[in-house]
Each structure stands twice: as structure tokens, then as C-alpha cells.
Amino acid sequence: MRKVILDGNSLRIEDIVHVARNNYEVQLSTDAIDKVIKSRELVDRFVNEEKVVYGITTGFGKFSDVVISKKEARTLQRNLIISHSCGVGEPLDEEIVRGVMLLRANALAKGYSGIRLETLNTLIEMLNKGVHPVIPEKGSLGASGDLAPLSHMVLVMLGEGEAFYKGARMSGKEAMEKANVPTIELTSKEGLALINGTQVMTAIGALAVYDAINISKMADVSAAMTVEALNGIVTAFDEKVHQVRPHEGQINTAKNLLRILQDSKMTTEQGQIRVQDAYVIRCLPQIHGASKDAIKYVKEKVEIEINSATDNPLIFEDVEEVISGGNFHGQPMAISFDFLGIALAELANVSERRLERLVNPALSGLPAFLVKNGGLNSGFMIVQYSAASLVSENKVLAHPASVDSIPSSANQEDHVSMGTIAARKARAILDNARKVLSMELLGACQAIDLRGNKGLGKGTQVAYHIIREKIKTLENDQIMNVEINKCEDIVKSGIIIKSIEKSIGEIYY
């Protein structure tokens, strides 16, 4: 069985994908087990001594000045989970829930949270046996972490709430019984340790980052096909141009385009047909490159976050100290995921503009709307409408969530990140961007056929054949959303990128 070992420090985005999408099992490292046990021993000692420590022997938020007795510790933790389960909306997708559970387990494995080992093992066992709590998508302010959605995760550990198990939705109690996972009773600090963190926003965002990398590569492929369909000028991609403005994403995009288009008989050189192309062709390295640099930045931030302790208070057992801080605040992720959404929106934006150049006979020199017998046939006319609708929606979604804040908990929590909203928006933008790129790919293939395929580049030839194996040239009008969905499925599968990389080597991002 394929496994991911959790030590709290070395989780990768690829590991999240393996667990969330490919059902890899999860196991704690020996070092992590030792740290968790030692951290818990300190919590137990402070409880026995009735020391006043936030979240262990006090209430939460505005109630931090209310001291809770040792006798009431278990009631306090249960009440925390029950009262904080205020999520609303549709359930998060299974892959996101699995990502959430994995990231919370990894954070707890660092040994700064004071949770009991058996409680952490219950969460891991649920993940390994496919008990997926129903976590409503809305209701988090992103500080103090993702309190509401994470509470819904913990409900199932208590035999409460709801879960999906083997494709069926049922009570949390029934799901745990069917999977043969014993439910638990929380004790001091454990409820807070399980819900006070950024794992929901980070799970959504981490999967979006992984997909964004592939989308950024796919954008170069679809753009390259459009360059060929329009007999675009490749001189603008010359390495010399980009070395004098050496942004990494820009340089990499220019390299990608030249490699993907290598040996093409459909591209041109400067002055051969015209002196220069419009911006959406000529400035491809600059436009795509900026988005790639943004995606790379977000990836670096996510890789820090997925190996961080993000709850409060933190237990430093080596110095026997408990510190109440603010690592639960989602601002680093909120700004990052807003940035990711903007980067993805721009990839879709420029793709739609390239599609417009393909369908507009005044700009392309091709039959109007890429169809013979126009008038009787509308061809790709409304495909461009649909793409325009999606990029317009993306512009609304790209408004940053992180610039908003509404104070909570009687103004004790007077600045919040809205990071989970930012992550959800980035994911929605990504979905729209994938659809727009699929529309451009269809349009570019059609335009190449109408122009006359004189010989495509090493990379574009691979992409063209994969698409044409499933989707034929449009001769007469048909239901276009069927073709769009087919193309999106191809893009989503990753087969085009894998096949091109096998042919020409890595496509850079």
C-alpha cells in the first residue's frame, strides 16, 4: 500500500494530491509520535496543577478570562465543537475533505498542540478508512483559523454530525461504526487543537496550486496552437529579448513556446508576412510569465503553511512554556490565494482574446466563426460568447477577499483574513480558466484545419492528435457544449502535458 509518512515538517503538495485524490494511506513517523506524547504530558501537568492557560483552563475568544475547572475540561471541549459547528452551504468535495484531514494531522504531528496520540490516531484512521466528514463549504472567517468547517470534521470523531462512507451519506456515528473506527471523548485542549488552524483554506488552495501549475503549462500549449493557426511570428520569443528583462516566468514561457513550436511549418518570422503581431501573440511570454511567477510565489507560501503549527496556544514542552499567539490567522494564505486567483484569471482573459482573434475574420483571415457555409452555420460564434462570460465572471471573483474584515467575538478578534473565501474563489476561477483554455484549444484545432495543416510543431502536433482522436473537425453546426466538455476532460486528465513532456522534455512554469 502506498503511504505518506507524517512528521510535521516534510509534507509536499504532491503528497496532498496522492492522499486526497489517489487514496494513499497516512502514517505517523516515530519522531512525531514521541513529540506528540511529550507535548501532551505537559498539558496534563498544567491541568492537574490548575494553571491558568488560554484554551486549556479558560474559555475561548471573548471568554478567555473565564477560568474553567479541571472537572469541566471535557465539557468545555465538547461544547466548543458543538457550538462552533455553524458551517452552511454545500459539502466540500471529498478530495478537499481528505486534504483537510491530512493537513490537520500533519500540523498536530509537529508536537506543539498538546493533543493525545490516540485522538490524532483516530483522525488518521478515519482518513485511511475513508470516513469523510460532511464539511459545509461556507462559514469560516479564516481567523481564528477555520473554526466552523473544522468543527464539522471533529463532530464525526465524536460520533456526531454526518459523513460520507463508501459513497453514501449517513450519520457520523453510523459511518464510524461501519468503518470500525471507535469514537472519542475529547479532553483538555483537544477540541481547540483540532479546529484552531488554517487547514481548510490551505487544503483548497494547495490543490488549486497543483492544478494551476498544469493550467499554466496548458496555457502555453493552447497559445502555441493559436500562434500556428494565425501564422504568428516567433521572432518575438527569441531568447535575447527576454534575457534583457529576466523575469523567470517570462523567460520560461518564451522557451516553452519555441520548444513546443519547434519544426512548425505554420509559424512565421518577423517581416515575412507582417512586422509584428497583436499583443496576445507577441506578448505571450510577458503575460503568461507574470501569472507563472505568481503561481510559483503562492506554491512557496503553501509549502511553508502545510508544515506549520497554526493553532493556539502552542505548547513548547522543551522549555515547559505555553504561548498564546496568532498562528491561526490566515492572512498569509488569504493574500496568496487572492494572488493565485488573479494570476489564473489573466490566463483565461488572454486565452479568450486569442479565441476572439481566431473567430473574427477581420483579424484571422479565416472563415467567419471558423465554419464553412457561414450564415447557415454559426460555428464557433457562441463558443466565444461563453468564454467571454467566464472571463467576466472571473473578473468579479478576482476581487480580493483579503482586503475585507469583519470583527468577531465581541471585537476580541477584530481583524480576520477571509482566507477560506479567497481559496474557494481561486478554485472557482481555476475551473473557469480550464474551460476557457479548452474552448481556445478547440478553436485553434478548427482554425488549423481550415488554414490547412502544413506541419505542426513538435509539441502542438502531439496536442492536436490527442484532441482529434476524440473530437472531429466541425463541418456543420452541432451541440457545442458536448465538444467543449470533451476537450475539458482531456485537459483535466493531464494527458496532453504528459505526452508533450515525453516528446520534448519538461514544460516550464
Automatic annotation (TrEMBL):
Stretches of the chain forming a coiled coil according to its record: none
E.C. code: 4.3.1.3
UniProt xrefs under InterPro entries: Aromatic_Lyase (IPR001106), Fumarase/histidase_N (IPR024083), HutH (IPR005921), L-Aspartase-like (IPR008948), Phe/His_NH3-lyase_AS (IPR022313)
Post-translational modification: Contains an active site 4-methylidene-imidazol-5-one (MIO), which is formed autocatalytically by cyclization and dehydration of residues Ala-Ser-Gly.
Compartment(s) where it occurs, according to its Swiss-Prot or TrEMBL record: Cytoplasm
Top-rank lineage group of the source organism: Bacteria
Record keywords, A-Z: Cytoplasm, Histidine metabolism, Lyase
Single annotated GO MF: histidine ammonia-lyase activity
Pathway where this protein functions: Amino-acid degradation; L-histidine degradation into L-glutamate; N-formimidoyl-L-glutamate from L-histidine: step 1/3
GO terms, biological process: L-histidine catabolic process to glutamate and formamide; L-histidine catabolic process to glutamate and formate
Main subcellular location: cytoplasm
Residue(s) of cross-link: 5-imidazolinone (Ala-Gly): A143-G145
HAMAP family given in the database record: His_ammonia_lyase (MF_00229)
Family that this chain belongs to: Belongs to the PAL/histidase family.
This protein's name: Histidine ammonia-lyase
